[in-house]
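== Item description ==
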Amino acid sequence: GMEVPPSEGGPFLNRSKYYEYLKNNKGIDTEYTRQADRLYKIFKKFVLDYMDCYYPTAADVAADKELQAMFVQFLHQSEMAVGKMLPDLRTIKDPNIIREIYADAMANFMWVVSAGHEQCGNIAPYVQDASFCAFKWASGALMGSKDTALLQALLMSFTSQ
């Protein structure tokens, strides 16, 4: 959801809101987005339940210096990709909002390292043949070059199971 401009409600740390945005504003409602949304909600519930075990109140979550430091690092790394579009926690006074932001960030991490990697990590069958699915084509070509096929094979040998 980081590619959604602030004027349209983005960026989204909450994937569920992003899928809702896609459905309502772009007409994208696929089985993939519905399943990804369900999985994200499971992760977020897990994170919130986990937080509840260790932090009696949202204020305790918001006051945790280690969570603050982790989120500052997350924002620093994300800023390289999306500029200053992400929330500045210093301006947010409601600890419930901060708790939700932390939970969204952690649930998003969980989604990316599980479902996101599963989706992206299973492309080897598609890219084995550069005439079917090439990473790049020369202008006017009907398929990828031999060099592209070799580079694809090399990349797949290092990244696939």
